[in-house]
Design goal:
Blueprint (H helix, E strand, L loop, with lengths): L2 H5 L11 H13 L10 E3 L1 H11 L3 H14 L8 E3 L1 H9 L7 H16 L4 H12 L4 H16 L5 H16 L5 H13 L5 H16 L58 H11 L2
Amino acid sequence: MNGALMSRSTLFQLEPLNKEHSLTAMRRALEDRDKGLGFMDLKVDEAALDHIATMANGDIRRALNALELAALTTPPDSGGTVNVTLEVAEDSIRRPTVKADESTQYDVLSAFHKSIRGSSDAALFWFLYAVEKLGMDPIVFIRRLIAAASEDIGLANPQAMVQAVSALEAYRNNGWPEAKLNIAQAILFAVESPKSNAVYMAISRVMSAIDELKSAEVPLHLRDTHYKGSAALGHGGYKYPHDFPGHYVKQEYLPKAISRRVFYQATEQGSEVKIRHNQALRRE
């Protein structure tokens, strides 16, 4: 801009908004019954307001959105009052606004899970895309990761479950984005783990057996024997496995109608190779 224009212009220096502006805006919203939250029976702790204002970093829209989210998603107490505590505020301010419709969210979550099952590190791409670009909650993906650790990996690598649950704990303790590395590590661990759906299939076989039986009687030798008169009822004959070579002895553990049924069939993937070998030895 040249001097002639400058001399004919009014100049304004804009200063960034700060924490105090956010606090002022939120207090107005709490008092305004028509355009704010004043119509609600609402009690907001000062510590909660202070945390939201600090985290919003001058972004008044973000502060007001977080306050509204906290107020509308917190169940009221027995007297009908909604109490927004510091813990509630911490959760609401770190929860971003989702920029995708419900169908897209389900599609991305599906792509994430199927990438894990397919041993593709595309799982990490879909996770970060969903959280960073679409504003989806990381907890949704961590829960799906925990499910995949049993559904698609299971005993082929039991450590996948440990990693997934540890990622959940890291997220709860550190929040986002601090826990990004921990979650990424758990996702990649699951991706690179040997895959097995044997646990999932075992559940399916058990449920089919339950439907087939309708009701099941416990074999006499497995029934409780700690009380007087149990022997007279025929309770007894249980073989204590630790008294036998290899800490194993053949005996029936299922109802007669489904005797010798096998539910868990280990694969030849990862740690299940050894399990499969032990299963074969027991069935000889």
